[in-house]
């Protein structure tokens, strides 16, 4: 969850950086190009993390329901 917050913060910073005129120079690209690169990169990372969290929650709910169905009580 904390890594998700960090990547979403970097995503927001890469979006707002070029708009606010923050200099993000690297790899021979200008600030705006770096902002677009960061926007795409951190956006994809955040999206993959969100999809993984959704899949993980679904599979854990299935495991919990299967345990309750077979044992008749909650696991805790």
Describe this structure in words.
There is one protein chain. The chain is mainly alpha-helical and 76 residues long. The protein has one domain. Helix 1 (2-20) packs antiparallel against helix 2. It is 79% helix and 0% strand. It has helices at residues 2-20, 31-71. The longest helix has 41 residues, at 31-71. It is built from two helices and no strands.
Question: How many domains, in number, for the residues?
Answer: 1
The rounded distance between the terminal residues' Cα atoms is 24 Å
Task: Figure out the total of helices.
Answer: 2
What overall form do the CA principal axes indicate?
Answer: rod-shaped
List the topology elements.
Elements: H1 2-20, H2 31-71
Helix pairs in contact: 1-2
Question: What is this structure, in a nutshell?
Answer:
By secondary structure, this protein is mainly alpha-helical. 79% of the residues lie in helices and 0% in strands.
